[in-house]
Write a structure and sequence with these properties.
CATH superfamily: Transposase IS200-like
CATH architecture: 2-Layer Sandwich
Distance between the termini: 13 Å
Strand content: 15-25%
Number of helices: 9
Helix content: 25-40%
Largest sheet: 8 strands, mixed
Number of strands: 8
Radius of gyration: 17 Å
Number of domains: 1
Order of helices and strands: EHEEHEHHHHHHEHEEE
């Protein structure tokens, strides 16, 4: 299994998904979701992690980040975030065993239209579950911070998000972001899409081939699949846990990494 930062290529956006052990609802209480956000802030502050969007649900998390090229930023940030959350939770609950499903999945996302789609996909996670009718009703997500920027304890890199999305000002991006979400809700097409959680990369054909080229020998066994106007890099499925077969799990085994590995 590839180590965490070996698939991270500087200059790209990465969608990271991480599920609780055995799909347990270990984030079912608001204080635990808030604590995840607090440790995410520490990761941003300590390691200069560039955060573009995020979502913490009752049993898994989504994190959209930008790799600006500083070595091990993403790996060290996830190590801090995931490690402290698990340690604190087990200590408080007098619980033993894994908090996480051990691995998190990373998908490279092309900027522009694909980035827009990924942001909306993350923001509407709790709407898909039927928990809320609009992402603004779920406090623990990036939608609310984008629409109501903070003055302190800031998680999202507003200017980098604006730049990668292709807007001249944050105000125009903010308005567009609000419209993307509202249009998606109105279309009733808010469904789970595996390209964001099971592929190694998703975007145009040019983007997919560029990622394969940058991966070099690490791309062995990978292939590009076309779905509509989107191209995805996939690798052979591996069933790594009988409780979480890849075909039944929202987060598949390919391009998944142990959060504690840095080299």
């Amino acid at each position: 299994m590839a180590r965490a930062n070996r698939h991270y290529i500087p200059g790209h956006v990465w969608h990271l998904t991480h599920r609780c052990h055995k799909r347990e609802f270990l984030f079912k209480f608001a204080k635990d979701r808030l604590r995840w956000m607090q440790w995410l802030y520490e990761a941003r502050k300590n390691h200069q992690l560039v955060i573009l969007d995020y979502m913490v649900t009752s049993n898994h998390t989504h994190l959209l980040v930008y790799d600006h090229g500083k070595p091990d930023v993403i790996a060290k940030s996830i190590q801090l975030l995931a490690g402290r959350i698990g340690q604190e939770y087990n200590a408080r609950k007098k619980r033993k065993g894994a908090f996480w499903q051990d691995r998190y999945h990373a998908t490279a996302v092309e900027t522009g239209e694909n980035l827009r789609q990924c942001i909306v996909y993350i923001d509407l996670n709790m709407v898909r579950t039927g928990t809320v009718n609009h992402p603004s009703q779920w406090y623990w997500c990036g939608y609310n911070e984008i629409q109501n920027p903070r003055r302190k304890n800031i998680l999202i890199g507003y200017e980098k998000l604006r730049e990668l999305a292709g807007y001249d000002t944050f105000d125009t991006f903010q308005a567009a972001h609000r419209k993307w979400v509202d249009d998606s809700l109105a279309s009733c097409e808010n469904k789970r899409e595996s390209q964001w959680t099971e592929s190694i990369a998703t975007g145009s054909n040019t983007f997919a081939n560029k990622i394969l080229s940058q991966l070099g020998i690490r791309a062995k066994g990978h292939r590009i699949l076309e779905k509509g106007q989107t191209f995805q890099i996939r690798e052979k499925r591996e069933s790594y846990n009988p409780l979480f077969d890849s075909e039944k799990c929202d987060i598949a085994s390919e391009n998944t990494h142990y959060w504690g590995e840095n080299a």
